[in-house]
Predict the structure of Peptidase M50 domain-containing protein.
Amino acid sequence: MKFISPMIFTLLLVIFTLVFELNLVSTAYFSLLLSIFVHELGHLVFGLFNKVRPESLIFGFIKLSWEKQFKVRLNTQWGFFGGLFRYKPTTFNNKKILRLLTGGPIFSLFFTLTFFVKIEFFQYFLYLIFQYS
């Protein structure tokens, strides 16, 4: 019997941070989940462009599966708590596999650059507003 699952861990972390007002901990945790989701989404998108059939996408406590139909489930396995993109095994050439594998880091890099550029622009915009008001 499992003592604690990833979903229970997340709920306990949310309750703990609300009770003790540790907003930095919860922000860091959910930022980590978001970055894992973006990374695994990159593998999924690049896989779909290369006609690879997805089997499941796991990030944190959420599992998306495409077995017979699309389903959203809770991830109960700690081994896959970080993230996992699983696809149907078929024969691929090396170029398709390389594209599939590089999809995650490319999406992560693109998301990071976009996020930081928007934050920098927003901070500069606020600086201009408050400086001249």
